[in-house]
């Protein structure tokens, strides 16, 4: 491949100098959404997603609109290690930030990146870039990292860019367990009959940075300490208010004594709270207490707890009698009784449930068999088991995998976009416990991620959890640095879920740009699952590949790969990778850089660029590269024209006849979205209208392909004018 002649651009130096001053203070990261609320692109607010969210508007767009998009994507192996040595997590993060931004700065200096004012550059690194060898970072590490990245972005000289700086995986302490202090444990241990040291150890474990150990259930001390804190936090103060964050010893002691009462009577409380309603308590409580014979007791119990069944032998009779005896202790005081039952359900059962589920389906037998109260409660018609799981999650540490997004001017707060469908690699200790010698442990009660989602959770469960957590497609939207324009952003395995296909993809198709950062998602999956929006891209850190596509038909947007021969060196065209090498290795962070830079793509309804809009030496590619692009785009034009011709000759007639037998042929031949497929399948009469939508999308793709083709032809004509092969066209 011919070498590329790079020329330094004085305008680049000016831009770098203008942005060189460090920020006066680090802006806290934000999450939420920039929602397009009208056709002109007004921005609305969004939902809170992490504790780092601030009330200030983040990533506010500038007053102008971008008409071109260019993807600048790092080829780097992530999640496995690096070529960098460091004495501390902070030092390693600093070195990684320095490496990636020194490479971006060098590409800016060499003029590899399109720096025209109406171009928005999407600069990205893959998932897991900041985490080495399965190590989780702390909240403090993440805060420091965001400050580093924001400062580096400000110095990069790309004020119109959006930087998608990979993802960071953090372990966050169990906030519930912060509400007590180590000195509280002596009194609590005495009341609960547990060693104070075990309680201190349980608290320290829940607040540590280390990932959860899924090979054993949470300790009894951890379960009971969580229950005491939960009970204490729910107690009103003397004036009827809420307890302060730091709970007092007296309140904790009272909660511990309440827990003892609950533990002694949990089976009866489970029977009551899971199977009786306030109405049945009012109408049938006294009747059950007055029943004298076994038959009368069983009949009265059927009214009090309609779904509760006991065997008709002596054991069943004894259990009913014991339940009656327990209730007699609260005769005339059902308010206190039901309050105790609610406390059991709200503040003890959830943590017991999390402990018991460790042993479900294991060779060692289920702990539930030793705790009949949980089985009774879970089978009760009044029990919301998913909510119990969600409450129980409070005693576990949380792992978050979040993409970091920063505006190119570096003045707006970084934004964090969460991954919602975790992979085993996000928390390797979970994967090892699930597949190791200990047998599957916590596979049905995963507590580590926001929303309580699990790597092996069913699609229906995933959707229910995310819906209950208030997640929406807008959580995946990021405003671009231009007025009203948006980017859809998804992390790795999220895109390969039915939840994404059924609940998110169509909304993200309305974005101007879509970006996937991943670690192990194939090109085929990306092409199949990516929304049919104007322009989409993927950056994968396991396969070390990048992909760019445009339009409803996902045509290839050309990209050129550049690499350094040595760290901190200049970039030149990358050496070809053998076609037989499916997943190339490296480079690791700290090794010579390798980046792909895409062709610039004009967004729909924008003016075409003049060839003279290219500053001298910026984005200057060699003649063979331009000829390759011309051949690619000419082929794409022909393919799209062929699809339009097929619609005229065959497709329109197939949908007009409302012939369901043609459904598979038509949907395979044309770029139908899932929503369009479902709509046509449900209503054959909608076929012609849907086909008109497909035709409009194809015509738009044809226009885009033709624009790309003509732009490459004009640029080639500039480099090889008819008068001479050795001079540039003015």
TrEMBL record:
Q: Where is the composition biased (Low complexity)?
A: 9-34
Domain of life per record: Bacteria
Per the record, which residues fall in region Disordered?
1-48, 410-457, 567-613
Q: What is this protein called?
A: Uncharacterized protein
Source species: Acanthopleuribacter pedis
């Amino acid at each position: 491949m011919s070498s590329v002649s790079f020329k330094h651009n004085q305008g680049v130096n000016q831009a770098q100098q203008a942005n060189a001053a460090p920020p006066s203070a680090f802006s806290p990261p934000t999450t939420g959404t920039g929602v397009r609320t009208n056709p002109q692109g007004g921005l609305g607010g969004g939902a809170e997603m992490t504790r780092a969210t601030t009330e200030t508007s983040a990533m506010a767009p500038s007053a102008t609109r971008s008409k071109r998009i260019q993807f600048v994507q790092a080829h780097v192996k992530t999640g496995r290690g690096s070529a960098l040595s460091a004495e501390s997590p902070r030092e390693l993060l600093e070195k990684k930030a320095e490496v990636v931004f020194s490479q971006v700065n060098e590409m800016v200096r060499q003029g590899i990146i399109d720096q025209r004012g109406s171009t928005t550059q999407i600069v990205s690194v893959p998932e897991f870039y900041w985490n080495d060898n399965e190590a989780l970072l702390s909240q403090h590490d993440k805060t420091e990292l965001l400050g580093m990245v924001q400062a580096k972005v400000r110095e990069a000289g790309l004020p119109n860019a959006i930087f998608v700086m990979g993802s960071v995986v953090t372990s966050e302490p169990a906030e519930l367990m912060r509400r007590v202090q180590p000195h509280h444990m002596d009194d609590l241990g005495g009341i609960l009959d547990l060693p104070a040291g075990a309680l201190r150890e349980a608290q320290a474990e829940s607040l540590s940075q280390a990932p959860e150990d899924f090979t054993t259930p949470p300790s009894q001390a951890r379960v009971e300490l969580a229950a005491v804190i939960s009970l204490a936090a729910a107690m009103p103060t003397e004036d009827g208010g809420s307890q302060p964050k730091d709970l007092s010893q007296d309140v904790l002691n009272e909660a511990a004594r309440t827990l003892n009462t609950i533990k002694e009577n949990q089976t009866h409380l489970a029977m009551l709270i899971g199977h009786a309603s306030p109405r049945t308590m009012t109408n049938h409580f006294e009747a059950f207490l007055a029943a004298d014979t076994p038959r009368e007791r069983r009949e009265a119990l059927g009214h009090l707890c309609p779904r509760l069944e006991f065997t008709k032998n002596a054991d069943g009779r004894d259990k009913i009698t014991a339940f009656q005896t327990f209730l007699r202790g609260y005769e005339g005081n059902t308010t206190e009784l039901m309050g105790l039952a609610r406390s059991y359900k709200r503040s003890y059962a959830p943590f017991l449930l999390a402990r018991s589920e460790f042993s479900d389906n294991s060779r060692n037998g289920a702990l539930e068999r030793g705790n009949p109260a949980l089985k009774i409660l879970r089978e009760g018609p009044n029990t919301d088991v998913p909510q119990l799981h969600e409450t129980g999650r409070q005693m576990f540490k949380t792992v978050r995998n979040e993409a970091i997004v920063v505006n190119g001017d570096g003045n707006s707060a970084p934004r964090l976009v969460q991954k919602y469908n975790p992979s085993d690699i996000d928390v390797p200790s979970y994967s090892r416990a699930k597949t190791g010698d200990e047998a599957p442990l916590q596979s049905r009660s995963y507590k580590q991620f926001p929303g309580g989602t699990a790597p092996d959770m069913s699609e229906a469960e995933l959707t229910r959890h995310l819906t209950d957590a208030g997640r929406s497609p807008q959580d995946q939207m990021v405003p671009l640095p231009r007025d009203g324009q948006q980017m859809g952003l998804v992390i790795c395995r999220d895109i390969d879920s039915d939840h994404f296909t059924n609940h998110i993809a169509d909304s993200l198709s309305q974005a101007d740009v879509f970006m996937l950062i991943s670690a192990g998602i194939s090109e085929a999956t990306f092409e199949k699952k990516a929304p049919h929006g104007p322009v989409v891209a993927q950056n994968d850190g396991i396969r070390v590949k990048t992909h760019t596509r445009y339009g409803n038909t996902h045509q290839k947007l050309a990209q050129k790969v550049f690499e350094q021969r040595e760290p901190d060196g200049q970039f030149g065209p990358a050496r070809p990778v053998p076609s037989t090498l499916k997943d190339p290795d490296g480079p690791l962070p700290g090794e010579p850089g390798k980046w792909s830079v895409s062709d610039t793509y004009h967004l729909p309804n924008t003016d075409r660029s003049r060839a003279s809009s290219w500053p001298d030496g910026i984005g200057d590619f060699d003649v063979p590269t331009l000829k390759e692009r011309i051949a690619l785009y000419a082929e794409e034009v022909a393919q799209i024209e062929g699809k339009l011709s097929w619609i005229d000759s065959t497709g329109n007639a197939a949908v007009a006849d409302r012939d369901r037998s043609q459904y598979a042929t038509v949907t395979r031949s044309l770029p139908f979205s899932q929503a369009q497929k479902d709509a046509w399948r449900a209503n054959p009469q909608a076929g012609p209208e849907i086909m008109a939508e497909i035709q409009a999308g194809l015509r738009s793709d044809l226009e885009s392909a033709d624009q790309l083709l003509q732009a490459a032809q004009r640029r080639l004509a500039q480099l090889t004018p008819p008068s001479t092969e050795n001079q540039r066209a003015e």
